């Protein structure tokens, strides 16, 4: 079972560059989430989606955009990368809020 | 609004000792509660969950947690620590009122000494 797959696993960008992180899940989950994890700050929600074609802002959405054109995919975009966006990014999915979230292994992103 | 507080960013125990990781939550309605574990360079994995029913919940790897409504707590315990338990642990709460979101605590890193 693949579960939640994130690509790429590692990336180094220069300030001002753009990139897209891809999340794919094969569990037919409605809800998908993007988090960032920084030391001592736990997980912070960037954006989330409650179904195909829908997106909503989380706790720290500035500087990021998302799209959910297909139910199984949730894309996170950085239009103009900044050093403050250096972090580990996790994607997660679930079928319902009373069910646990399934996480990918993360994307480690460094902005120089 | 939902919130989660994990007491202690770091906990150190000796191998074979009791593990106790504390979690307190706030929620305006009956919550759904979760504990996740994160090993280095991996994503979070579910340890156990409480939704309804029995307040003592058993999870994987010998962990268990008790939902105490009067104390708004969901502490994680394991009778005897093993070296392989060294990891970061996250408590999380959702109750459906946060727009389908789950709120995670800041995490507690568990160290196990030989």
What is the topological layout?
The complex is a heterodimer of chains A (112) and B (114).
Chain A: E1 4-7, E2 10-13, E3 19-25, E4 31-37, E5 43-49, E6 56-57, E7 64-67, E8 73-78, E9 87-94, E10 102-103, E11 107-111
Parallel strand pairs in A: 2-11
Antiparallel strand pairs in A: 1-3, 3-8, 4-5, 4-9, 5-6, 7-8, 9-10, 9-11
Chain B: E1 3-7, E2 10-14, E3 19-26, E4 32-38, E5 44-50, E6 56-58, E7 64-68, E8 73-78, E9 87-94, E10 103-104, E11 108-113
Parallel strand pairs in B: 2-11
Antiparallel strand pairs in B: 1-3, 3-8, 4-5, 4-9, 6-7, 7-8, 9-10, 9-11
Describe this structure in words.
- The complex is a heterodimer of chains A (112) and B (114).
- Chain A is mostly beta strands.
- Chain A is built from no helices and 11 strands.
- Chain A has strands spanning 4-7, 10-13, 19-25, 31-37, 43-49, 56-57, 64-67, 73-78, 87-94, 102-103, 107-111.
- In chain A, the strands form 2 sheets. In chain A, strands 2, 4, 5, 6, 9, 10 and 11 form a 7-stranded mixed sheet that branches. Chain A has a 4-stranded antiparallel sheet with strand order 1-3-8-7, with no helix packed on it.
- In chain A, a hairpin with a 7-residue loop joins strand 9 (87-94) and strand 10.
- In chain A, 37% of the residues are buried.
- Chain B has 114 residues and is mainly beta.
- Chain B contains no helices and 11 strands.
- Chain B has strands at residues 3-7, 10-14, 19-26, 32-38, 44-50, 56-58, 64-68, 73-78, 87-94, 103-104, 108-113.
- In chain B, strand 4 and strand 5 (44-50) form a beta hairpin.
- Chain B is globular.
- The relative contact order of chain B is 0.34.
- The model of chain B has no long low-confidence stretch (mean pLDDT 92).
């Amino acid at each position: 079972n693949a579960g939640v797959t994130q690509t790429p696993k590692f990336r180094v960008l220069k300030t001002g560059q753009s990139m897209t992180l891809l999340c794919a899940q094969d569990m037919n989950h409605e809800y998908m989430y993007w988090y960032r994890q920084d030391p001592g700050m736990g997980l912070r929600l960037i954006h989330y989606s409650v179904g195909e074609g829908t997106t909503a802002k989380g706790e720290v959405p500035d500087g990021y955009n998302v799209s959910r054109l297909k139910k199984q995919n949730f894309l996170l975009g950085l239009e103009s990368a900044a050093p403050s966006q250096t972090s580990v990014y996790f994607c997660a999915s679930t079928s319902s809020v009373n069910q646990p979230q399934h996480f990918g292994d993360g994307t480690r992103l460094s902005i120089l | 609004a939902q919130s989660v507080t994990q007491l202690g960013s770091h906990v150190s125990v000796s191998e074979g000792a009791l593990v106790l990781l504390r979690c307190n939550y706030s929620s305006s309605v009956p919550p759904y509660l979760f504990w996740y574990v994160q090993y280095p360079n991996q994503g979070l994995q579910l340890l156990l969950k409480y939704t309804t029913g029995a307040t003592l919940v058993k999870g994987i790897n010998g962990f268990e947690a008790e939902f105490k409504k009067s104390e708004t707590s969901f502490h994680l315990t394991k009778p005897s620590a093993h070296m392989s338990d060294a990891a970061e642990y996250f408590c999380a709460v959702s109750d459906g009122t946060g727009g389908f979101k789950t709120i995670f605590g800041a995490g507690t890193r568990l160290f196990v000494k030989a």
